């Protein structure tokens, strides 16, 4: 059947090609010219999709949502940023730590010092506390580092929030002057071995080509000083607030009623805070590690600038000068009050002496008259 149809079509094509006159056609066309030519109706079809078209009654069951590639990309970027990120936590929990007794208790964790500084010790813990049902292999990536300073700061490296208390207990056993509420600050370090420079700064983090123990010591020194400075600034703020209340009371009543002993206590507190910041915290002492290597000096200078250590100490010094000015003024008031009391005592004594003299004169004159 197919061969006969093919022969018939071939014969018609050959016959039509013999004449160019449209009126001459031994085999007229099958379709009359009065009928419209067939149109291409493929353009009227709706676009084809491999997904089935859901029925309006079940549209909610087959609700298709396109994947959010931007969200996936952002999550991937965040995961890449967190890769190689080392958490750093700084705490100020007391006013003094006995480093010798702490070093004796944790001798196996002590990292040998590389400088002559004796106001801190560095410890390495390669056996972190295990949670229930967890297994952690002992390797360098699991090691935790802690740097403890004599003035009460402790800086933890590669320690999660739920693990921090375990390491702080080592410090509390040798601490004195524990604070009712310790101060805390968070920071982060990122390691990038392919970094062109030795270091690069960022928001709330620093990027290092390689994190070694000297880098840990330098970073700890700045973070420890910064968190301790926060404590001393809060102490001075409390003193300033007390003097502000005293001045307001004098403005209303016109008198000064503070006890001399309490004033001297405020004087001693202000002076001890300034001495602790300069001597114990060593705010103006430069690390020996930074003196030896410019790489560590760059890290030290960057962090001191990032934490505005010099500016914050300047603000602290300004507040202490305000306190000192008020102390001198109030001491003069107390001194004048004491002088007034002495003057009244002298007046009373002179009055008594005059009365005695008058009495003797009267007695003598009475005796002569008799």
UniProtKB/TrEMBL annotation:
Domain of life: Eukaryota
GO-annotated cellular components: mitochondrion
Coiled-coil parts of chain: none
Residue ranges of every copy of the DUF155 domain listed in the record: 146-316
Family affiliation: Belongs to the RMD1/sif2 family.
PANTHER family listed in its UniProt record: PROTEIN RETARDED ROOT GROWTH, MITOCHONDRIAL (PTHR16255:SF16), REQUIRED FOR MEIOTIC NUCLEAR DIVISION PROTEIN 1 HOMOLOG (PTHR16255)
Entry protein name: Uncharacterized protein LOC111377581 isoform X1
Organism, as annotated: Olea europaea subsp. europaea
Lineage start: Eukaryota, Viridiplantae, Streptophyta, Embryophyta, Tracheophyta
């Amino acid at each position: 059947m197919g061969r006969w149809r093919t022969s018939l079509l071939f014969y018609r094509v050959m016959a039509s090609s013999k004449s160019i006159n449209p009126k001459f056609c031994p085999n007229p066309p099958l379709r009359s010219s009065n009928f419209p030519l067939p149109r291409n109706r493929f353009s009227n079809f709706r676009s084809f999709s491999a997904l089935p078209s859901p029925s309006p009654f079940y549209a909610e069951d087959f609700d298709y949502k396109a994947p959010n590639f931007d969200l996936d990309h952002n999550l991937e970027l965040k995961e890449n940023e967190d890769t190689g990120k080392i958490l750093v936590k700084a705490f100020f929990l007391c006013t003094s730590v006995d480093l010798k007794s702490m070093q004796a208790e944790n001798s196996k964790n002590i990292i040998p010092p590389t400088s002559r500084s004796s106001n801190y010790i560095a410890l390495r813990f390669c056996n972190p506390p295990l949670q229930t049902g967890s297994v952690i292999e002992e390797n360098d990536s699991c090691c935790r580092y802690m740097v403890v300073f004599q003035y009460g700061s402790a800086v933890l490296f590669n320690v999660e929030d739920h693990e921090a208390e375990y390491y702080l207990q080592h410090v509390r056993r040798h601490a004195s002057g524990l604070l009712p509420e310790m101060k805390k600050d968070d920071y982060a370090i990122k390691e990038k071995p392919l970094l062109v420079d030795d270091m690069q700064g960022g928001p709330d983090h620093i990027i290092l080509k390689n994190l070694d123990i000297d880098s840990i010591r330098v970073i700890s020194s700045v973070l420890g000083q910064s968190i301790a400075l926060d404590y001393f600034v809060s102490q001075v703020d409390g003193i300033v607030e007390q003097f502000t209340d005293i001045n307001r009371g004098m403005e209303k009543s016109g008198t000064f009623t503070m006890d001399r002993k309490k004033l001297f206590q405020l004087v001693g507190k202000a002076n001890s805070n300034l001495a602790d910041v300069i001597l114990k915290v060593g705010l103006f002492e430069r690390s020996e590690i930074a003196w030896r290597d410019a790489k560590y000096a760059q890290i030290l200078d960057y962090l001191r600038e990032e934490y505005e250590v010099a500016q914050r100490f300047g603000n602290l010094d300004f507040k202490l000068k305000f306190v000192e000015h008020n102390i001198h003024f109030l001491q003069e008031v107390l001194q004048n009050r004491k002088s007034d009391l002495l003057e009244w005592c002298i007046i009373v004594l002179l009055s008594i002496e005059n009365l005695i003299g008058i009495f003797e004169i009267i007695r003598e004159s009475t005796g002569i008259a008799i």
